[in-house]
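Customer escalation, tier 2.

The customer says the design service returned an amino acid string that "doesn't look like it belongs to this structure." They asked us to rerun it and document both sides in this ticket. The original structure tokens are below, unchanged.
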């Protein structure tokens, strides 16, 4: 799998924004074609696409290319987890502001909680994906903060990661639709 990730990174390296967007548009086109094939077989397939199952935004140009693709794909609902919200290093949040078909979840843990609080003050529309030792710890850490929290049902072993019906994220729907923050647990209880 590392070869695939490395190959994908190399394919994007050195491209300008439009070149990156072209590769991403092709990928989303393949996603749409897969959805269409499944629907022709009678399945109901939500057009929910997770950006990155491993990795993060590596440049502002790359984030801008994604924003172009998201903006031009109103039929697809995108979601992403990111640690790229540091104004002193790489902050992609301004690029994604105002995109109604994108849910952005900041990857949060006890070590970066203060930085994430600052990011949310700057961008109140973002959601959190909070990783704690246990779900109870996560709820306790976030109790004083506004908003609704959802424990990840796959992470808590209440639904399987993959089933005949669809993936856990699509079945749950919280991260793709973004109604609140999500809590993940290191301990699988």
């Amino acid at each position: 799998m590392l070869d695939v990730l490395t190959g994908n990174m190399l394919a994007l390296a050195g491209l300008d924004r439009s070149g990156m967007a072209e590769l991403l548009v092709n990928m989303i086109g393949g996603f749409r074609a897969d959805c269409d094939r499944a629907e022709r077989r009678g399945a109901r397939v939500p057009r929910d696409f997770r950006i990155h199952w491993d990795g993060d935004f590596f440049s502002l140009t790359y984030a801008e290319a994604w924003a172009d693709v998201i903006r031009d794909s109103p039929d697809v609902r995108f979601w992403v987890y990111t640690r790229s919200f540091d104004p002193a290093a790489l902050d992609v949040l301004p690029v994604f502001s105002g995109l109604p078909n994108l849910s952005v979840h900041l990857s949060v843990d006890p070590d970066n909680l203060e930085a994430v609080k600052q990011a949310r003050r700057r961008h109140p529309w973002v959601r959190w994906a909070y990783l704690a030792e246990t779900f109870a710890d996560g709820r306790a850490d976030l109790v004083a903060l506004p908003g609704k929290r959802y424990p990840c049902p796959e992470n808590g072993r209440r639904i399987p990661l993959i089933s005949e019906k669809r993936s856990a994220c699509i079945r749950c729907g919280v991260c793709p639709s973004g109604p609140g923050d999500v809590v993940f647990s290191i301990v699988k209880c």
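Tier 2 assessment: The sequence is consistent with the input. Helices lie at 2-12, 17-40, 60-71, 93-96, 113-122, 135-142, 168-172, 174-177. The radius of gyration is 17 Å. Sent an explanation to the customer and offered a walkthrough call.
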